[in-house]
From TrEMBL:
This is G-protein coupled receptors family 1 profile domain-containing protein. One of its GO terms (biological process) is immune response. InterPro entries: ACKR4, CCR1-9-like, Chemokine_rcpt, GPCR_Rhodpsn, GPCR_Rhodpsn_7TM. Belongs to the G-protein coupled receptor 1 family. Keywords: Cell membrane, G-protein coupled receptor, Glycoprotein, Membrane, Receptor, Transducer, Transmembrane, Transmembrane helix. It is a multi-pass membrane protein. SUPFAM superfamilies: Family A G protein-coupled receptor-like. The chain crosses the membrane at residues 43-64, 76-96, 116-137, 158-180, 206-229, 249-267. One of its GO terms (cellular component) is external side of plasma membrane.
Length: 371
């Protein structure tokens, strides 16, 4: 995981070849950037954690209650919710790091950094799988491409294999964080960050970041654009009678793509620019470096909000999930009513027994009095 809190760096403010004391490097003090991260990131991470736990937790509970995933979409949505939850569970660690520095040791630093990268990448790849599955489902409904290898792969029998490939690719991308992350002392605090060995050089770090951008943004975006464009063209060919449903489906597709672009594009643009800065030293002024660090903090928080929106975009709008949720709510309500009725019956039986006992005692007293 990149450390967007900001460290102090040396920058040459004067690039002239004439000798001057201004040619010596100056320290770029970033105490204000760390102060901004100390109150901005914990607030954003707490909001993402609360909203994301509620939505994704409900998805996992509903599908776990039914115990059997009937379609490939159900399987992808379940894996997406699990990946979102695992990603959200990493946020308290980074909130504490932004506020007080890293205080949990090197092992936890490695695990948390790797889990963050793995689950973030897995979420993006699963979004691509969901888009492709929707496209293939529409093609099957129209009787197209029934014998293609994609249709054979994206079926219920092979869905688990696709999910294994996705998790494996995400794990391979998070492996460098597991190996290279360390706790270093800098700017009067401990910092958890990936320390690349000199043998890898700047090119190795840049190659890893390019792979993260490709698998975590460009590939899912291209898959979504191609699949949803094809689906939009197919929906336009529907008869006039279903125009209302057609435009509703098109609006959903536009919202899904729009939310993905709005939340993920700024973060990846900043990430690519910082990667180019490590290779070509584009940033030479302290003010520019501060702006770039603050932009990384804001855009990364914006990218994480997609974990909160995934249940709404991909699950709650689906009719099958709404049916599952309605059945679960009905069974939960019936169970509460049965338990309440059972308690009322038990209390009523207790009252009847108490009344019979009291009447028996009264009759005894009356008979004794008569005698």
């Amino acid at each position: 995981m990149d450390n967007p809190v900001g460290d102090d760096y040396d920058y040459h403010d004067n690039s002239s070849f004439n000798f001057s004391y201004d040619d010596y490097p100056t320290i770029c003090e970033k105490a204000d950037i760390r102060s901004f991260a100390g109150y901005f990131l914990p607030i954003m991470y707490a909001m993402c954690l609360l909203v994301g736990l509620a939505g994704n937790g409900l998805v996992v509970i509903v599908y776990a209650y039914h115990k059997r995933l009937r379609t490939t979409m159900d399987a992808f949505l379940t894996h997406l919710a699990v990946a979102d939850l695992l990603l959200l569970f990493m946020l308290p660690f980074w909130a504490a790091d932004a506020q007080r520095g890293w205080e949990l040791g090197s092992v936890v630093c490695k695990v948390v950094s790797a889990c963050y990268t793995v689950n973030f990448t897995c979420c993006m790849l699963l979004l691509a799988c969901i888009s492709l599955d929707r496209h293939l489902a529409l093609a099957r409904a129209q009787g197209k491409d029934r014998g293609s290898w994609l249709q054979r792969m994206f079926c219920r029998r092979h869905c688990s294999k696709v999910c294994v490939v996705v998790w494996t690719a995400a794990f391979m991308l998070g492996l460098p964080d597991l190996i290279l992350s360390e706790v270093r002392w800098g700017s009067n605090r401990n910092v958890c960050l990936a320390v690349y060995p000199p043998s890898m050089g700047v090119g190795g770090k840049a190659a890893l970041e390019i792979a993260e951008v490709l698998l975590g943004f460009l590939v899912p975006l291209l898959v979504m654009l191609v699949c949803y464009w094809s689906m939009a063209r197919a929906l336009k060919g529907l008869p006039v009678e279903s125009r209302g449903k057609k435009w509703k489906a098109l609006r959903v597709l536009l919202i899904v793509v729009g939310v993905f672009v709005v939340t993920q594009l700024p973060y990846n643009v900043v990430k690519v620019y910082r990667m180019m800065d490590t290779v070509f030293a584009l940033v030479t002024h302290c003010g520019t470096s501060k702006v770039l660090d603050k932009a990384a903090q804001v855009t990364k928080s914006l990218a994480l909000t997609h974990c909160c929106l995934n249940p709404i975009l991909y699950t709650f709008v689906g009719s099958s999930f709404r049916q599952h949720l309605t059945k679960l709510a009905k069974r939960f309500g019936e169970g509460r009513r049965k338990r309440r009725t059972r308690r009322n019956d038990v209390s009523a039986e207790g009252e009847v027994m108490e009344m019979s006992f009291n009447s028996h005692s009264a009759s005894q007293a009356t008979n004794t009095f008569s005698i």
